[in-house]
Design goal:
204 residues, binds FE2/S2 (inorganic) cluster, binds iron/sulfur cluster, 5-stranded mixed sheet
Length: 204
Amino acid sequence: MNKILLQIDGKEVEASEGMTVLEAAQGAGISIPTLCHHEKLEPFGGCRLCIVEVQVGDWTKRVVSCVYPAEENLVVRTRSEKIDKIRKMILELQLCHAPDSPELIEFAKEYGADKDRFEKEASFCIHCGLCVRYCAEVKKKNAVGFVDRGIRKEISFIPAIASKECWDCKECFPLCPTEALQAAYVLTKSLLSPPPSLESASEE
Ligand code: SF4
Ligand code: FES
């Protein structure tokens, strides 16, 4: 694959054609915050936390680095007053859904995000889609998916598939930045398990 050279935060970075700006930065040890990115998954561009500035000629534009292609001579800035402000706002909006997420709390410290800025709507899921996409793209099982739309959108295990595939897998658990996935799993499992009295009766 052809090599290209670009500049990220003033550093000359070598990348391969086809890489995203995020991949080029990570390859050079430059960190960009992400919530919905995973190296095994197709780029998604959902959370927008990885936003950066790129300079094209005399003007600057903001792009989502996990989907934006690295290009020859591209000049990228991963932090600026504006970028930090956008990340702070994204984090404040996410924190109203999942105020106890360790990952969000950590990012909030770095960007000065106030977890109480917006009214709490503790749905816990921040719709990063990592669990859904991992199960579909890596495991090819589709045992977990989104149901409903807009503010009602939430993840749900598909009982018929989950009962066969999930109990011994759980590879999606560590990917979830909140407690939403485990809560949905526990609920599904309890709905699928027979009550203890029936279980013991069937063993007799
Ligand atoms: S349950 Fe967790 S991993 Fe799945 S979409 Fe919601 S926040 Fe992301
Ligand atoms: S990590 Fe790029 S949009 Fe979420």
